[in-house]
């Protein structure tokens, strides 16, 4: 074998070995950072500094209190939740193996609503979105809202959108107006 051929084979072998080592390191790093693995989730949470914060920001709390008062005055058997994932109360009517249904669910499941009012049997009766200073932190609020609006409309759940400047009276009027437009009976079921 000529020295140049031997040297070339040695270089090719070294490069192949480096590529194999790099691929193995990437697989190991991916496994160490895979959030689907419970042990990684426990490690990340265990190594992080966490603190409790208010689940509703200071300006939105006035909407929360107005909604609680409205419930107490008009529908005492209803309940109020906040920061609820839409997938918890909106489902597709499609079969579980339906690709379109899964895509639709994935489209709205990652969205959260600010406030959800449920009736005495636990059915969603009204979603309230507060458009305050924290509404558009990522710059895509209108796009997110378009998906929320469509999903809520298709599920038969009314929506009240509250601007940051709304007074208590305007908040209560928006709730009454949204519920006045609501169909009688239960929301659409899948």
Question: Secondary-structure blueprint of this entry?
Answer:
Elements: H1 3-32, H2 38-47, H3 61-74, E1 79-85, H4 99-109, E2 112-118, E3 124-131, H5 141-155, E4 159-163, H6 168-180
Parallel strand pairs: 3-4
Antiparallel strand pairs: 1-2, 2-3
Helix pairs in contact: 3-6
Organism: Aureimonas endophytica
InterPro entries: DUF2726 (IPR024402)
Keywords: Membrane, Transmembrane, Transmembrane helix
Can you walk me through this structure?
- There is one protein chain.
- The protein is of the alpha+beta class and 190 residues long.
- The chain folds into two domains: 3-47; 61-180, tt1808, chain A (Alpha-Beta Complex).
- The chain is 49% helix and 14% strand.
- The protein has helices at residues 3-32, 38-47, 61-74, 99-109, 141-155, 168-180, and strands spanning 79-85, 112-118, 124-131, 159-163.
- A four-stranded mixed β-sheet has the order 1-2-3-4, sandwiched between helices.
- A hairpin with a 5-residue loop joins strand 2 and strand 3.
- Helix 3 (61-74) crosses helix 6.
- The longest helix has 30 residues, at 3-32.
- The radius of gyration is 26 Å and the shape is elongated.
- It starts with a helix and ends in a 10-residue tail after the last helix.
- The mean pLDDT is 87.
Quickly describe the structure.
With 190 residues, this protein is an alpha+beta fold. α3 (61-74) crosses α6.
Distance between the termini: 73 Å
Task: Work out the number of β strands.
Answer: 4
CATH class of the largest domain: Alpha Beta
Radius of gyration: 26 Å
Instruction: Report the order of strands and helices.
Output: HHHEHEEHEH
Multimerization state:
single chain
The DSSP helix count reads 6
Question: What class do helices, strands and sheet pairing give?
Answer: alpha+beta
Unreliably modeled segments: none
């Amino acid at each position: 074998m000529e020295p140049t051929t031997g040297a070339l084979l040695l270089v090719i072998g070294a490069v192949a070995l480096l590529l194999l080592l790099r691929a193995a390191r990437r697989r190991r790093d991916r496994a160490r950072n895979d959030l689907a693995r419970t042990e990684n989730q426990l490690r990340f949470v265990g190594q992080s500094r966490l603190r409790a914060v208010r689940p509703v920001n200071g300006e939105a709390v006035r909407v929360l209190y107005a909604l609680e008062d409205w419930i107490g005055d008009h529908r005492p058997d209803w309940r109020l939740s906040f920061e609820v994932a839409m997938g918890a109360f909106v489902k597709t009517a499609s079969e579980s193996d339906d690709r379109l249904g899964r895509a639709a669910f994935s489209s709205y499941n990652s969205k959260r609503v600010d406030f959800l009012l449920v009736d005495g049997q636990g059915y969603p009766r009204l979603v309230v979105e507060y458009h305050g200073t924290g509404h558009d932190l990522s710059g895509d609020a209108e796009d997110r809202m378009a998906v929320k609006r469509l999903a809520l409309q298709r599920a038969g759940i009314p929506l009240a959108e509250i601007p940051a400047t709304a007074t208590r009276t305007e908040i209560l009027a928006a709730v009454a107006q949204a519920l006045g437009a609501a169909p009688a009976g239960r929301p659409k079921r899948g």
